[in-house]
Amino acid sequence: MKLDRTLPKETIDRQYDYMRRVKEWNPDGLKAHVLTFGCQQNEADSERIAGMAKEMGYEITDTVADADLIVINTCAVREHAELKALSITGQFKHLKEKKRSLVIAMCGCMVSQEHRRDNIKNSYPYVDFVFGTTRLYTFPEILFNCLLTRKRSFYLDAGDEGNIPEGLPVHRASKFKAWVSIMYGCNNFCTYCVVPFVRGRERSRHKEEIVKEVTALAAEGYREITLLGQNVNSYGKDLYDDYDFADLLSDLCKIEGEFLIRFMTSHPKDASFKLIDVMAANDKIAKAFHLPLQSGSDRVLSVMNRHYTRERYLTLVRYMREKMPDIALSTDIIVGFPGETEEDFEDTLSMLSEVRYDNIYSFIYSKRKGTKAAVMEEQIDDTVKGARFERLLAVQNAINLDKNQKYEGKVETVLVEGYSKTDKSRLTGRSERNRLVHFEGDEALIGSLVKVKILRGDLHALYGELVKN
Ligand code: 5AD
Ligand code: SF4
User: Fold this and answer.
1) Which of 11, 58, 149, 376 is the most exposed place for a label (fewest CB within 10 A)?
2) Per the structure, how many domains does the chain have?
C-alpha cells in the first residue's frame, strides 16, 4: 500500500496565518540567528527555519549578540555533536539575562529524543521552546504561542511517523548552491544509528514538486543542486510502483540550465546499476559518488544490519568505474564498532587499498542511546579506537596525496565559491569530482562554473590556472 505523506495545503496555510500574526505582533526591526549543527539535511531544514523567520518579519543575522530570536538546529549522530550544541546553548544564557525579550528555541535531531528534551527542560530554563524534526513546519505556531504567553513548550513529534510540508518559505544561504530534500526519514535501522529514531520513517516528496523546485532554482541561476535524503536510492518506494531515484535523476537532467546535480546519501544495498547508467549518460550529474561503506568486514556489516557484503559493494564500484572511469568515490567509515576485532579492522583497511577512495569521512564509533549497538557487549576501548582511527587516516592520506598528484595536467570543471581562506588573492572552489581547487582569478567569477588546469596537487587541495575559452 503506497502512502502519501504530503500535508494538506490548509495545514501549511494555517502556518502562513501564524507567520502573519507573529509579524503583526512583533515590533519592527527584529533579528533572527539560526545556528546549525550536523549534516546537509539540517542545513536544508535551517534554510526553511530562516525562511519562516524572514516571513515573520525577522531580519536574518550572523551575529548572535544582535538576535531577538535564536534557533539552534541540533544533531544527534554522535555524542560530540550533542555536547557541542549543549555547550553553545549554555553560552546563550547571558544573552537572555541581558535581553529578557530574547527567544531561544531548539530543534533538530538531538531534541527529538525524549531524554534530551527532558534534559533541556530541566537544565536549560532559558530555552523557550523545543520542536522535533517532524514538527519543523509548526515553528510559526509555536513561536506565536510563546510570544503571546511567554510559556515554555516542548514538542517532540507531530504525532505520526513523519509528514512532508510543501510550500514553506526558504531563505537559501548561497546564491549558487542549493539543497533540495527529495525524501525524509530512514527505515534502515543500522544498529549504530540514531537517525531512524529522530527523523521518522522514509517518505518521498512528489516528483512533480521536486521538478518544480529544481526548475525554479535553475532559472534563478543556481549552479549546483544537491538532492538530499538519508537513503536517496530508495526514493519513491513509498509513493510509486514504477518510478525510482534513477527515473527522477533522468527527469531532472531534462531541465534547462547550466547546473550540476549531486546527491547524497546512498545506501549500497539499494544503489542500482540503472542509477549508474543514468549517471554515466548525463553530463549534468556530477561524476562523484558518496557510497558509505561503514566497515570492510562482512561480519561487522551483518551486525551493523547493513544488508550487503564487501563483494556486493565491490561489484557496484567495479560497474561504476567501468561506466565512468574517472568517477570520484567517497565513503563513510566507522572505526571501533562493538566487537570489531583487529582482523575486522584490517578488512576495512584493505577495502581502502582496494577501492582507492578519493575521500573518506571516518568516525570513531559513538554510543547512541536507544540503538542496538549501544547495549552490545564488547564495546571497544577508547585507546584502541583512537589508534585504529589514526591508522585509517594514514592509509587514506597516502591515497589522497597520490590521487591529487594524478590530477596534475588535467582540466577540471570548478564551481567558484569565494576567496581562499588562507590567501585572499586566490579564488577557491570545488571541482565536479569534489576536490578543493585554488587558482587566481577575478571576483566576478564567484558563483560560476569555470575550467581550471591543475598544475599541482597536495594532500588537501589542487592548485591550478584558469583556462580561457
Ligand atoms: N558513531 C559513529 N559514527 C556514526 N555514524 C552514524 N552513526 C554513528 C555512530 N553512532 C556515521 C556513519 C554515517 C555518518 C553520517 O555518520 O558513518 O554514514
Ligand atoms: Fe543511519 Fe543507516 Fe539510515 Fe544512514 S541508512 S541514516 S546510517 S540508519
Assistant:
1) 149
2) 3
- Asked whether residue 309 falls in the same domain as residue 440, the answer is no
Task: Please give the pLDDT value at position 160.
Answer: 64
Q: What pLDDT does 151 receive?
A: 94
365 touches ligand 1 (CB under 6 Å): yes
Question: What distances in angstroms separate CA 407 from CA 193, 376, 445, 452, 463, one per listed residue?
Answer: 36, 44, 22, 11, 10
pLDDT score for 79: 94
Q: Is residue 169 part of a domain?
A: no
What nine digits make up the cell of 365?
Answer: 564509533
Nearest-atom index, ligand 1, CA of 332: 17
- Mark which of 383, 405, 427 sits at the end of a domain: 405
Inter-residue contact 152 to 129 (CB < 8 Å):
yes
Block mean pLDDT (10 aa), the chain, length 469: 86 97 96 96 97 98 96 96 95 94 96 93 95 94 96 80 91 95 95 93 95 97 96 95 96 96 95 96 96 98 97 97 96 98 98 96 96 96 97 96 94 92 86 94 91 95 90
Judge if the beta carbon of residue 290 lies within 6 A of ligand 1. Answer: no
> Do the domain assignments include residue 33?
yes
Give the whole-angstrom CA distance, residue 448 versus residue 454: 18
Order of strands, sheet of 359-364, starting from the edge strand that comes earlier in the sequence:
288-290, 328-335, 359-364
Q: Is 292 in the pocket of ligand 1 (CB under 6 A)?
A: yes
How far, in Å, from the CA of 153 to the mean position of ligand 2?
Answer: 29
| Predicted local distance difference test score (pLDDT) of residue 327 | 96
Contact 384, 336 (CB under 8 A): yes
Which is nearest to 261 in space by CA: 238, 241, 279? 279
